Amino acid sequence: MERHAIQPSEVLTEDGGSYPGKLIQRVGGVGRNHADALARLGCDSVLVSAVGNDSNAEFVRNSCKHINLCGLKTYSNAPTCTYLSINVGGNIKYGISTIEPLLHLVTPSLVTENKEHIENAEYVVLDANLPLPVMKETINIAEKCGKPVWFEPTDIKKVRAIFDCGGIDKIAAVSPNANEFLEWLKLCKIENIDGDVVKSPRRILELIEKEKEKVMKNVSIMVVSLAQNGTAVIHRDKFGLLTFKSIDAPVSPKEVVSVSGAGDSFNSGLLAGLLYGKSLDDSINVGQRCASATLQSVLAVAESLSPEFVE
Question: How far apart (Å, rounded) are the C-alpha atoms in residues 107 and 19?
């Protein structure tokens, strides 16, 4: 569950005053956003997650009827995870979340109870908000079934989760934003990191070309989102050959309503395109169209996404 306060101006003084804007309640969450976008694009997506026994959970269910929610478990002794953001000029200034009470209750049994969905999946998208034992169990099951895992860091402080759970060499894809990518480089023991590397996709591609063994690990797809500076996509084919793509931002800053969920929409479009057998370039174009639609929407995933985006 997400609640957003959106103020269109770029001028906001921290003086305790009230400012005109929009207050929006919507469903969100990185894992859910991917399940949402993939479902709208025509993929069969199953959401394995947890909610509390409250009105927020009902709002989630009512808003996600197009997603297979058979993996959604209800816990009566914790509230549904909720996130509040303050958006100014199209960018998130602050975010406050209450997710720990529920996540502390989630155990690996949530994954084992849904093992068949992993076995039947073509791809598993893993949200870094999950407890480490749950992440580890997910990766272990996926590895045994030969299913690729897409790791979504979600936050700079949670990038290290994939290292801490022992899954760093077992993931097939990763999609950090600029700050998360810098943290990824530190964890990969890249020395003398220039913070300006995240100012353009080209500079990221140059760094990865130089340090590909350390940075890419066993990853086949790396998507580095740089907000208005564009996106860097690195793809490794079955022969080990790396392809580098530098992509401009899908819309101008003036067209942005909210950046929240745009990266998730891009990832989902890219993944959907690849799953449908499209080329890397065509799949990137699908991702760009999805990101563009979501950037111009107040929702975490634009309702306009449809299978036509992939055609």
Answer: 42
pLDDT tens per residue, range 103-129:
999 999 999 999 999 999 999 999 999
pLDDT digits (tens, 9 = 90+) for 242-262: 999 999 999 998 899 888 899
Q: What is residue 229's three-state secondary structure?
A: helix
Exposure string of 274-296, with b = 16+ CB inside 10 Å and e = fewer, is bbbebebeebbbbbbbbbbbbbb
**CB neighbour burial string for 237-265, b if at least 16 within 10 angstroms, e if fewer:** eeeeeeebeebebbbeeeebbbbbbbbbb
**Residues in the chain with pLDDT < 50?**
none
The model's pTM is: 0.91
Look up tokens 């992939």; give the residue: 310
Question: What is the rounded CA–CA span in Å between residue 118 and residue 42?
Answer: 18
Cβ atoms 278, 13 nearer than 8 A: no
Distances (CA, A) of 110 to 70, 140, 210: 12, 14, 40
- Grouping H, G, I as helix, E, B as strand and the rest as coil, residue 249 is coil
Three-class SS of residue 222?
A: strand
Distance CA 27, CA 33 (A): 8
Per the CB < 8 A criterion, the answer to whether 49 and 32 are in contact is yes
CA distance 181 to 215: 10
Which DSSP state fits 196?
Answer: G
CA distance 252 to 5: 22
CA distance 134 to 37: 23
CA-to-CA distance for 267 and 286, rounded, in angstroms?
9
User: How far are the Cα atoms of 36, 39, 112, 128, 233 from residue 103, in angstroms, in the given order?
Assistant: 21, 25, 16, 11, 31
Phi, then psi, of 222 in degrees rounded to 5:
-125, 125
Residues counted in the chain: 311
| Distance separating alpha carbons of residues 264 and 153, to the nearest angstrom | 11
